[in-house]
Please model this.
Amino acid sequence: MSGAQQRIVAAAEAAPVITDKEGRRITLRRIGALEKLRLFKALGPQLAQNEPYLAIALLAFAVAAIEDVPLPSPANEAQIEMVVQKLGESGLAAVAAAFAATTSSRAAQVDSAKN
Model:
């Protein structure tokens, strides 16, 4: 296996997988600066300023697969809404909980580093 193939496999294995209340496996993608920029572009200027819409869109944008069926990064409002519809309340809640856990874990790491 080439170095590039090994990196792809390692990235896929490292992707966080969560389960929602319906028992669906949801694979998350990491959201970095470039992904955020692409999300803002997909939303357009008006929706990017709508904080409630942006919050839900970010959750949808973070989903890489549902039940091992890959989902490409949404490139427009319709694609974001399609992912939101597939996730439903249960899926969105599971993704939000995963984000909350990650955020609190990072905060604890920062506090630990300060001491």
